Amino acid sequence: MPRFSKLKKRIEALFSPDINLEVRCTVYRKRTQYGPLKLPRLWITLNGEIIFDFIKDFADLITRDPYFSWKYKGTDIDICHLDIMFINDLIQEYIETPADILFDHVFPYDYYGLTDILKAADRRIGKNRLLVLKDKTQSEAAKKIIEVRLGIPPIIVDEESLKAGKNDDE
Q1: Nearest to 83 by CA among 139, 45, 34, 28
Q2: Are 13 and 19 in contact (CB under 8 A)?
Q3: Cα dist. 95→84, 125, 149 in Å?
Q4: Which residues pair with 64 in a beta bridge?
Q5: C-alpha distances in angstroms, 36 versus 62, 67, 118, 145?
Q6: What is residue 12's DSSP assignment?
Q7: Are 119 and 142 in contact (CB under 8 A)?
Q8: Are the C-beta atoms of residues 11 and 104 closer than 8 Å to each other?
Q9: Can you give the C-alpha Rg of the chain in angstroms?
Q10: Could you tell me the pTM of the whole model?
Q11: Are 41 and 28 in contact (CB under 8 A)?
Q12: Tens digits of residue pLDDT in 52-90
């Protein structure tokens, strides 16, 4: 498996030049009374705003056991550097997928919705397919990227108008 810095360069080279998107990865190491603890983190920023954050975005799936080990809820599966290795493998698979089948390709080990984010950023995906992706994806991060790429201004909701029952047509 290549070092993440090499994967980072390769995946970011596929991103559309009209977006400011960055992929970052680290492993936090902590000594505990039960031994060393490694917690992986992979996050993606769009114009400096974190739009995807593995582990934080998936906190509802994670629990801590009495031995200070982090596990997926309801399982004995530890969250460890293996998760980042799986994500690295997923990014590698994405990079190696031919452009002509990329849009419709299903990545079976994408448990975190990462490939929709990569597709939204990928310069090889055209505007028509971005619109299709925007309609079918569940990923808010992917939708934000698509809006930036297509020049769609973000929808700003005025909370006072919502409370008063007003709409834009009034």
Answers
A1: 28
A2: no
A3: 16, 13, 20
A4: 70
A5: 19, 11, 33, 37
A6: H
A7: yes
A8: no
A9: 19
A10: 0.76
A11: yes
A12: 998 776 655 555 554 445 554 455 555 554 466 778 888
Residue 42's identity, in one-letter code, is L
pLDDT in tens, 5-40: 899 999 999 999 999 999 998 877 777 666 666 677
The residue to which tokens 């559309």 are assigned: 16
Question: What is the secondary structure of 27-73 as a DSSP string?
Answer: EEEEEETTEEEEEEEEEEEETTEEEEEETGGGGGGEEE-TTS-EEET
Exposure string over 88-106, b if 16+ CB within 10 A, otherwise e: bebbbebeeeeeeebbeee
Please report which residue ranges of the chain form alpha helices under DSSP H. 4-12, 81-96, 99-102, 114-121, 127-136, 140-150, 159-164
Coil vs helix vs strand at 112:
coil
Residues paired with residue 34 on neighbouring β-strands, in sequence order: none
For tokens 């991103």, name the residue. 15
Nearest Cα to 146, choosing from 17, 56, 19? 19
Could you give the CA distance from residue 20 to residue 15 in angstroms, rounded to a whole number? Answer: 9
